[in-house]
TrEMBL record:
InterPro entries: DUF5983 (IPR046025). It comes from Gluconobacter japonicus. This is DUF5983 domain-containing protein. Residues 7-95 form the DUF5983 domain. Pfam families: DUF5983 (PF19419).
Length: 97
């Protein structure tokens, strides 16, 4: 039996630059410090939404925890944070680029 999963698609501007850099480091060094399972692509990240609100050893800003909590509330299993992704008015936008 197959399963269909939901994911939240967001623009990378929902993460401050420091968090985007931290996610790149976490993926590059085997996930150390990442809030959950995370894969990087050329334009962003695909992040698993954990079942609880804990984000482990994440030492970034609270922005990623807010994204994961929002995705969890929407019933999503993953978040695609992409350079060309849409803006979600329920989350802050960091206009740093």
């Amino acid at each position: 039996m197959s399963a269909v999963r939901r994911f939240l698609d967001l623009g990378s501007g929902h993460l401050p630059r420091v968090d985007r850099e931290r996610l790149d480091e976490a993926v590059r060094f085997g996930g150390l410090g990442a809030p959950s399972a995370c894969m990087a692509g050329p334009y962003g990240w695909f992040v698993h939404v954990p079942d609880d609100t804990a984000v482990g050893a994440w030492d970034g800003t609270p922005a990623l925890a807010a994204i994961l909590a929002h995705a969890r509330a929407l019933g999503c299993d993953h978040v695609l944070i992409d350079a060309d992704g849409p803006v979600d008015d329920a989350l802050p936008w960091f206009d740093e680029d």
